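re the bet — no i am not wrong, look at it urself. input seq straight from the record:
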Amino acid sequence: RLLGPEHPDVAESLFDRAAALFILRDFSAADSLHRHAYALRAAQLAPEDPRLLESIVALAMSASNFYDHARADSLYTAALERWDGPTWERHPARLSALVGRATLLLDEQRPADAERLFRSALPLLTETRGADHPDVADVHYNLGEALAAQDRNLEALGAHRRALDLYRHLHGDAHDLVATSLYRLAGIEERTGGLAAAETHYQEAAAVYAETLGRDHPWSAYPLIALARLLQRENRLADALAALNEARMIYRAADLNHPDSRMATLDLQAGRVLHDLGQYREARIRLTDSRRSYRAQLADAQSDADTAAVAQAQVQLDAIVTRLAAL
């Protein structure tokens, strides 16, 4: 009120408040203020002013958070193209745009393009923020994901191991980022035949999730379910069933029951293990519950015209019918 709505300090104040609201996860309010700040800055500043770069990147991050990938990609691309060259390559906002677009491309199943941008960002981030900065750890992790998506698993192992080392250095052993890194590392180790290491890391991931997020958090169950699949591969069916039963208790503590797709999938997996163990009565109960859930999901998916969900539910139903017929 004192300065007037067009005063340059108003735009800066709006931007700072929007950034704080974004950190506090009030995304709608942050987006509104960022749009207002950008409009004021665009009217007041020269086209190459780095404060415009900051605003565009903030708007891109906001769009990505709302899953508006087309808008986010357009904004990130505009930022990278306008502020290009040696003068800008180390600017913090441009580096954020580079990493942000790489992450977006990874989410859009474009891992080769994402890998190229992550590799461009990594040395610049290391130089400007330090080799043990959290952003450097995140890029190593996401680079590992991009490599794994291209079936370049040995390279992915190296990137994920580096990310895990950095997360442990930054946060200690008891942190959910450490658990996630262990979980993803275990999956790649399993694919490359390192079953003993994968088993250990799945167990560690489940323990760290339980310690940091709680025994009633669904993420605590995910490594146990993956561990059960590994144990099934090794024909250690009793151990696999124990892991699945532990995961089921976590889901129930988290109020995840049928027809939730996660419980349906777990009971399908458990039904298969129980069948192979000769525990046919319990197998029929689990498979029947799972079938009921998938039928409900199939009806919902068809009403929404979600063809991918319809196909997935139908595949699972076919598998259940086959198993039940064998009992």
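see?? The CA atoms of residues 60 and 75 lie 5 Å apart. told u. also The mean pLDDT is 91. so pay up
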